[in-house]
User: Which sequence fits this backbone?
């Protein structure tokens, strides 16, 4: 039996492993894909304190190496289900293996919803981004577009308008889902242009993005706008489907406060899959530390 099993080896999960191992807890991480989570796809990270610039892959690898050097164990297997028992938790893997632990940290993360159009993956980091606060500074003095109609999209457009020369806010409907106060604020910005009701039909440029082709949802007409970057803000999908009957979810995200405690004693949540407003690399790592320390207290003190 491990002291702590961590589901997910992104920044939150690996940070939790570091804190758990430093406290002497036997720690196993299970990861269904690649360690590092979404950050591995970020070409450059420039907003992590004390690290001026580093690639997302290098950052994730440094975290991984630190956790492994401390004695954490990482197994590439998908957690299929978790059941609470008298002594702790049974964790069943997709491979059929059953592991046990005294406490569990869910650091399963989330994935950005993609447009699902040609060359989207190819242009990731070459004009396509899913995080304005992460990558906005790379487009200082340039022209960008934001695609989306919710609060995040409008907030991203407002944020980018303070950095870049020109922002297009593209939405498939004439009405936004975002709060009126945000939309009103966006409309007042002289370098922000709202483009509705359009969808992004295709991506232009080689090897970097130089423009987008749009299609009008009402009359089918097309138009092209020249942009250096496209920020896709059409939502995220937390990877919590396998745990919907285990812990309380809100909109697919795990309900857990700043102490990272879920409604189930002994199960903690960390990172992008937790209900929270800000989802950044720093907050994921912070969640990992908080969740690990809370799990340690639970194991040692029963609180």
Assistant:
């Amino acid at each position: 039996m491990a002291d702590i099993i961590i589901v997910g080896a992104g920044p939150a999960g690996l940070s939790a492993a570091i804190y758990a191992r430093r406290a002497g807890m036997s720690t196993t991480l299970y990861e269904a894909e690649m360690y590092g989570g979404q950050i591995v796809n970020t070409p450059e990270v420039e907003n992590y304190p004390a690290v001026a610039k580093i690639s997302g892959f290098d950052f994730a690898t440094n975290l991984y190496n630190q956790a492994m050097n401390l004695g954490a164990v990482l197994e590439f297997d998908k957690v299929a289900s978790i059941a609470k028992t008298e002594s702790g938790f049974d964790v069943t893997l997709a491979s059929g293996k059953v592991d046990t632990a005294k406490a569990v940290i869910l650091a399963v993360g989330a994935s950005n919803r993609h447009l699902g159009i040609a060359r989207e993956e190819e242009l990731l980091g070459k004009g396509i981004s899913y995080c304005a606060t992460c990558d906005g500074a790379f487009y200082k003095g340039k022209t960008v577009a934001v695609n989306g109609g919710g609060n995040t999209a409008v907030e991203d457009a407002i944020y980018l308008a303070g950095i870049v020369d020109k922002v297009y806010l593209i939405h498939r409907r004439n009405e936004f889902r975002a709060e009126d106060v945000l939309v009103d604020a966006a409309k007042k910005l002289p370098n922000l242009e709202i483009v509705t009701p359009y969808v992004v039909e295709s991506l232009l440029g080689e090897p970097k993005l130089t423009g987008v082709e749009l299609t009008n949802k009402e009359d089918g007409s097309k138009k092209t706008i020249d942009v250096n970057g496209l920020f896709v803000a059409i939502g995220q999908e937390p990877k919590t489907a396998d745990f919907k009957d285990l812990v309380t979810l809100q909109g697919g995200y795990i309900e857990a406060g700043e102490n990272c405690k879920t409604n189930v004693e002994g199960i903690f949540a960390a990172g992008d899959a937790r209900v929270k407003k800000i989802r950044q690399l720093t907050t994921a790592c912070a969640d990992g530390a908080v969740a690990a320390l809370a799990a340690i207290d639970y194991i040692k003190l029963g609180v």
The chain has a mean pLDDT of 96. The chain is about 25% helix and 30% strand. The chain has two domains: 2-112+236-301, 128-232. The first strand starts at residue 2 and ends at 7.
